[in-house]
Structure formats: C-alpha cells, structure tokens
Design a protein that fits this description.
This protein has 207 residues and is of the alpha/beta class. The protein has 6 helices and 6 strands. The radius of gyration is 16 Å and the shape is globular. InterPro entries: WbqC.
C-alpha cells in the first residue's frame, strides 16, 4: 500500500492531485503547524480577464499553532466572495451545474476551523475524481511503517515546473487564448467533468 503524508490544502491544485497519484492512503496531521504563505487557505481560479486567488481569512495574528486550531474569520464576507467568484468563473462551464451542488453547501456552512473545511472539501474532490483513497487523520506526529512524505513540498513559493509532480497538460478552459496551468481542481472538474482523472494522469511529470 502506498501511504502519502500531505498538507491539507483549500480546494487543492492540479499539482496536489498529481503528487498523490497512486496513493491508497492519505495521512493527515492536524498537529502540524499552520504555515503562512501556503496553500492551506488559498486557491486559484480563472476569471474572464485574470487568474484570481481566493483566500480564507484567518483569525488573529496567525501564530505558529497546530492546523486544527486555526480559526476562520467570519467577520469578513469571504464565503459570498468565493461563491460569487466561482459562479462568475465557471457558471457557463460544461459541468458546473453537475458538480457545483457538491461544493456549495460546504462553502456556505460556517466551519469553526480551517481544518474541518479543508477535510470536507478534499473528501468531496476525491469522490468526484473517483479515487478510492483512504484518508487517515493522525493525532500524533509519529507514523508506523513506510510513507511518502510530501508535507511542505507544494507551496506558492517557487514554480510547479521546478518540482517533480506536475507538467502542464492543456484541456479546454472557458477564458483566454493561452492555457492557464495548475489552477484549483475546480477548474478541471467544471471544464472536463468525468475526463478530469484522465487529464491528471496525462499531467504526471515524467521522471
């Protein structure tokens, strides 16, 4: 069994899903520390005239605390902004009406912490990709057996093409003449639907 330790990103990128290709079990560590300038609370979508970063506001000064303790700031109307942005970006996408109802109720719910929100979204993404992956949440930092540890590897700093997981494989997008790679998994799901997993397989970076 391939066991992969990974950070819990918000609506993860295509690079995330190519990195965990072949994993039979994902190991998640809620006691790992929250990292600033990461994908833990941000994702990228394609609008008509630009790539937009959707960020979830975090309460407080973002000290180095365990992921499970990171609280979402609902004083800012981020849910409405994110839902409106997603609908504006993908409302006319071929598979939007089919897939959006899976995400909408999760994004409308007031999760008290970032961990629970991200975990629910990842579970839905894996289901829609039809990946039979077991998710295991480990409360301590020690693991038994051999694992592939990808924590801290997929970060905004540095480009995806300098890492070893994802290569840009164009698929039909709604906007622009040039293909925009490595967006949120939402872009792929809404644009190609059941072909999403096939595109991810084609996007695996060759050794």
């Amino acid at each position: 069994m391939t066991r992969v330790a990974i950070d819990l990103h918000y609506l993860p990128s295509l690079e995330f899903f190519t990195a965990i290709d072949g994993a039979e079990e994902l190991l998640l560590f809620p006691q790992d520390l929250y990292q600033r300038q990461s994908f833990l609370n941000r994702t990228r979508i394609l609008l008509a005239n630009k790539v937009e970063t959707l960020s979830i506001p975090i309460q407080g000064r973002r000290p180095r605390i365990p992921m499970r303790e990171v609280k979402i700031d609902y004083g800012q109307k981020w849910q409405a902004i994110h839902l409106r942005g997603i609908q504006s970006a993908y409302g006319k996408a071929p598979f939007f009406e089919y897939f959006f109802p899976y995400f909408q109720p999760i994004l409308e719910r007031q999760h008290s912490n970032l961990w629970d929100l991200n975990l629910q979204l990842l579970t839905i993404c894996l289901k829609l990709l039809r990946r039979p992956v077991k998710i295991t949440v480990l409360e301590n930092k020690e693991t038994i057996g051999e694992i592939v540890d990808l924590r801290g590897q997929i970060v905004p700093k540095g480009a995806f093409y300098n890492r070893s997981y994802y290569q840009a494989t164009p698929y039909p997008q709604l906007f622009g003449l040039d293909f925009e790679p490595n967006l949120s998994i939402l872009d792929l799901l809404f644009c190609v639907g059941p072909e999403a997993e096939k595109v991810l397989k084609q996007s695996l970076k060759k050794p």
